[in-house]
């Protein structure tokens, strides 16, 4: 499989599937580019080299630069000494995006192919990868509905976000496209409309929720068939208590939840913002910026930094992945693209 485009079963979201080396979106696809005067042969080489740099394994880093066979590069990356999974998680998505930005902006034929996917979500249909891909082959019917994906599709999400940024740069004209400074909309506490704890009535499948956190924790209980905790979550209207209940879910498995959590958060926030016009307006008003959860303690959903920290204003110095901010940014851009459909969506709120 190289690259193909399909509608999802629901007829709303369109996917561009990719996987193997021949696809221009693969990390293994041959593509010469430079970053800081260092030449790379593919995005995988950049990623693994930066992995070695993060952990100061200069010997492995040099071996990676001297290798031009992607599987061997990947294998070398697994040999990096002093590796720490949590530390790498704080860096890996930024690294992948940086590498792919250089790859596509420095290779016009690849850029053309990336921009041609406009209006679709890029999906790495790797049956074996539940982190960067969806854990499913394109031929699997479950691949056509993100609700049934087995993986997070981090690579696909990063490429989709990058493509939309490059399209926005082009549409913005020369002044915007030549600016290297990224604009951020920071949020953190409950009073922000972008917080998971912010009060917001909405329905999903005829079930009422009082905030996005409640939806997330309820779905967590559902994934692991803990209906007792699920019911307690629905009966609670205090977000910190809802979060605490979510931590009590029985039969919890971190790998399984990681395969579902980003989809769940996006679904909950789509319902929250489309069913509450004042919240939707606040979200759309952030157009042109990246939403950033400036939580000093959360390195997964936030950036692990307060907004007041100077490092918060440069994504290269973030300490966290900002998954919530990335999801909200992606959702906002989708709602803007949907445009004329917004009125009918927001009118569906019957709370």
From TrEMBL:
Pfam families from the UniProt entry: NADAR
Residues of the NADAR domain: 17-166, 187-335
Matches recorded under NCBIfam families: ribofla_fusion
Name of this protein: Hypp7049 protein
Entry-linked CDD domains: NADAR
Classification via SUPFAM superfamilies: YbiA-like
């Amino acid at each position: 499989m190289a690259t193909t485009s399909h509608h999802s079963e629901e007829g709303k979201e369109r996917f561009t599937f990719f996987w193997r080396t021949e696809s221009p979106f693969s990390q293994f696809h041959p593509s010469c580019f430079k970053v800081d005067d260092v030449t790379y042969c593919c995005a995988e080489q950049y990623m693994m080299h930066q992995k070695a740099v993060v952990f100061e394994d200069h010997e492995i880093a040099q071996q990676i630069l001297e290798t031009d066979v992607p599987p061997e590069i990947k294998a070398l990356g697994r040999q990096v000494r002093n590796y720490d999974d949590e530390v790498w998680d704080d860096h890996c998505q930024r690294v992948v995006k940086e590498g792919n930005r250089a790859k596509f902006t420095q290779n016009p034929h690849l850029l053309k192919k990336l921009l041609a996917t406009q209006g679709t979500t890029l999906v790495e249909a790797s049956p074996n990868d539940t982190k960067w891909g969806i854990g499913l082959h394109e031929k699997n019917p479950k691949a056509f509905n993100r609700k049934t994906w087995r993986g997070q599709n981090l690579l696909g999400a990063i490429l989709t976000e990058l493509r939309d940024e490059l399209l926005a740069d082009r549409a913005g004209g020369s002044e915007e496209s030549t600016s290297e400074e990224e604009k951020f909309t920071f949020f953190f506490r409950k009073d922000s409309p972008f917080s998971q704890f912010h009060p917001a009535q909405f329905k999903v499948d005829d079930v009422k929720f009082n905030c996005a956190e409640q939806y997330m924790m309820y779905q967590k209980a559902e994934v692991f068939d803990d209906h007792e905790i699920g019911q307690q979550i629905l009966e609670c209207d205090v977000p910190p208590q809802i979060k605490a209940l979510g931590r009590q879910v029985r039969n919890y498995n971190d790998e399984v939840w990681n395969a579902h959590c980003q989809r769940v958060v996006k679904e909950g926030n789509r319902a929250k913002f489309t069913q509450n016009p004042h919240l939707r307006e606040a979200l759309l008003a952030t157009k042109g910026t990246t939403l950033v959860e400036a939580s000093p303690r959360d390195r997964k959903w936030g950036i692990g930094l307060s907004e007041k920290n100077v490092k918060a204003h440069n994504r290269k110095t973030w300490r966290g992945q900002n998954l919530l901010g990335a999801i909200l940014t992606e959702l906002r851009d989708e709602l803007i693209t949907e445009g004329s459909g917004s009125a009918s969506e927001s009118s569906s709120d019957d709370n």
